């Protein structure tokens, strides 16, 4: 247990450091991006360079935004939120992307949905990360089943099930390590950050997967009366 405790303390210290660095980098990055846009307007000789630079900026921004999610939870604003509102926002946000990828999101939502004590944007971010992963695992389309139901007296289960490529055993062990990705344009931060957020909310995060069948993400969160 002592070893485990030390490990989790170290993890959160590393998380805080990462979030701190991300925060410091954000301002100079915004300035650089602004000047790049100005250059782009003034002369198009270097079109290709500007394009490459822009896409690299987008990449750095993605990494920074994900690392910023690791900010100290007690500095964040936890409040009572209706899960129905959160889910609705997330599903609306991803609707177009799903349609474009020939993916149908089949939601099976308990009625009524419970209230949770949370940082709304963080929970949204987790669900977006997981639904994006699910879509990215189904290059030729298919169905995502999104189930939300009571887990027990004071917990809710959020399950995201895809029919994607699945994750081989030896990869499954590494998933959630910072920067571990199998994608060309991946950051390898989505699962690590999402797991951390769920744990900061007193919840549990589990992945199970069968190659060629699909992947299931289970998120269990405490509910409010
Ligand atoms: P990223 O999506 O940027 O690669 P993540 O942390 O979100 O980073 O995911 C890490 C890796 O886990 C992915 O690169 C992929 O190999 C695997 N993975 C995550 N979700 C799924 C899924 N639903 N189906 C198959 N593989 C997945
Ligand atoms: Mg991802």
From TrEMBL:
Residues 20-225 form the Histidine kinase domain. This is histidine kinase.
